[in-house]
Amino acid sequence: MPDRCLAEWLALLEARHPSEIDLGLDRVSAVWSELMARRQQQGNPVKLGTVITVAGTNGKGSTIASMQAIMLQQGYRVGATTSPHFIDYNERISVQGQPVADGLIVAAFEEIEVARQTALSAPVSLTYFEFGTLAALLVFASADLDIVLLEVGLGGRLDAINIIDADVSVVTSIALDHQAWLGDTRELIAVEKLGIARPERPLLIGEGDSPLGFEQMIADTGASALRIDVDFSIAIQDDQFTATLLSKDGQPRQFEGLPVSGLLPINKTLAIQALLSAGFDLSAGDVAAAMDGLSLPGRQQQLDFNGIKVIVDVAHNPAAAIALAKSLAPISGRYLAVASVLSDKDWQGIVAPLANIFDHWQVAEISDTERATKGQTLCEVLYNAGLSATFHEAVDGGLKKAFLTALDQATADDTVVVFGSFFTVSAVLMLNEILKQELKQQ
Question: What is the per-residue DSSP string for 72-125?
Fold first, then answer.
């Protein structure tokens, strides 16, 4: 097997499997079983510690970030896998809150490559995401961790993450997204997301607006469910909130004076309840300290570009767009949009709650994937809604040009808001990193 660096491995994995998304657990389960058997034979059995899996349309990353911050504050060893990444692939696999080194990922890829050759009667084909999921698990298995936090990539029931039986499962929210794979109703999507639950183990539900038949769906999982506003709750007052929760043995626990700012209170609350349900004894002081100033890249993240305020947010479905709209308070100047989405997103549904907020839209077709929404569709929706917009061709720099144009048109009183896709936000965050490096060199 030729030696490959991480970049070479990633290029190979992107090109190897015929489908970017190929839901199903048979292939990835077979390879994981082979990996575990090989490690067992070597006298190095796979041990992951307590596992918490998080699914949901929105809020997964924020919930995991909150859990990670709390556990680190309390001195535990923590591993977390999230997706996608913004700048470096290593962001997807973190230990102790830091992305792991290239060498660890490459070693895991090499181990997976050997195992997939012998897991079944013929070499097993794995998607880019499946390869990455297995790599994260191998890294965690070698890191002597107390807790592993797993973010579902798509849906839940058939997502590669679901090869692991979680000690606690969390469903943050249920809204329309990825309908081509998960179904075109909230009821169908709920079934997919509840697929991460395990019988007689804790299942946390952060969705307060239940789809039709949700109670029966939860009952069918056989899990021990805790629901927001039923079993645990949030009380917000001004800039603080109180979370009233339950310990693993059912005793009430209350956490007061938690900050409303930063990540959404519901996701912070789910994080605390998940850790309690897993049996961890949490200090109220440690929880408050962990939540203080907690933020996450790409989630209503604020930047400054030469005196122009910029907000980047990965709002890529109607529910997330509504949340973004609520967060944009009136300002003395204008809000200017920079946006683009993938083709499986409800672009019209994303535009609708934001239509009256932005004075002008800069849009471009995403050039990094074949799943991009075509420029004509982006423009038609905006023009049909009577909105002022400018389209930038991908061959002319696309998203980068759209963003720089918005900056040029903005004054110190204006705010540029970048949203619609991880690809969209990533382009701006990468540009921000380049500018910071240039400033360091001056």
Answer: HHTT--EEEE----SS-GGGGEEETTEEPPHHHHHHHHHHHHHHHHHSSSSPPP
